[in-house]
Write a structure and sequence with these properties.
The structure is a homotetramer. By secondary structure, the first copy, chain A, is mostly helical. Chain A has two helices and no strands. The first copy, chain A, is flat, with a radius of gyration of 22 Å. Chains in contact: A-B, A-C, C-D. At the A-B interface, helix 1 and helix 2 of A face helix 1 and helix 2 of B. The structure holds a DNA duplex.
DNA sequence: GATGCGCTTTAAATGC
DNA sequence: GCATTTAAAGCGCATC
């Protein structure tokens, strides 16, 4: 691969990443706006964040438990 | 607003946020995959991150300078 | 504060940290030995790590839930 | 070994590990506190970390060199 | 050499 | 609004 092509390819990768990161930032802004809207409607943002956090942990914990079940199954040759 | 409605509305807000956070996570994964792909092609991921970071800083600096220029223009009544 | 004293004080801080880090490393070794011992007794180390991880998460989740309960109490003025 | 005994033994192993990990966490906290204290006294924490890292590497290098020396001694029948 | 894990660093969020 | 505290990302190590 010539250096010219490598350079071009690198630019491509970086461009794609920057594009996705821009979208990611936009989503972060959107989320913030929803929190603000909820706050304006009288909800407690801090509590909302806690709720979402706990729900996320629950999901993660469930996944963990399934993973350990898989381990047991493997250990038992099932 | 009745408590029932508030509850429903809260669920809506949380649902919207969770949806957007899921999209955000997906994007983070996509970005990681691009880095992996670039790595597999022989590029140095760490350097790529540096490049992207610097470009982002440059962009921020440019925006700041334009903001200052605007202030000057306003101060001079242009 | 004279530079001599500062130097001496810095040496003290670093010495204390190195002492604690040595203890920390010793503990890490001890933990590893227990895993090895368990392995030698026929237990599956990978599963053990999962169990410990989940127990730790459970503890963290419990603490989170108490935190959110506190938030609710505060929000309700209790 | 009956399953009951195995279960009990597993619980023992896990309990011992959790105990040691708790101590390890405590040490990590203690270390952090010393860094904070040093920071409050005007020292640069980042530099301190560098110093400690380098000293650790030096120690490792020294140990390695002594190991090589031992090999030479043995090879020479000293 | 790839994967996971802990530590470091940076970004976000809370409280004053 | 700023400064502390907390969460997320990145990085290096150590292991397999």
């Amino acid at each position: 691969m010539s250096e010219v092509i490598a350079k071009e390819q690198l630019a491509q990768f970086i461009s794609r990443i920057e594009r996705l990161e821009a979208e990611k930032s936009d989503l972060a802004e959107d989320i913030k706006e929803i929190y603000d809207e909820a706050k304006g409607t009288g909800f407690d943002v801090k509590i909302m964040r806690q709720i979402i956090k706990i729900k996320r942990q629950d999901k993660a914990k469930l996944a963990e438990q399934e993973a350990i079940l898989d381990l047991y199954r493997q250990a038992l040759g099932l």
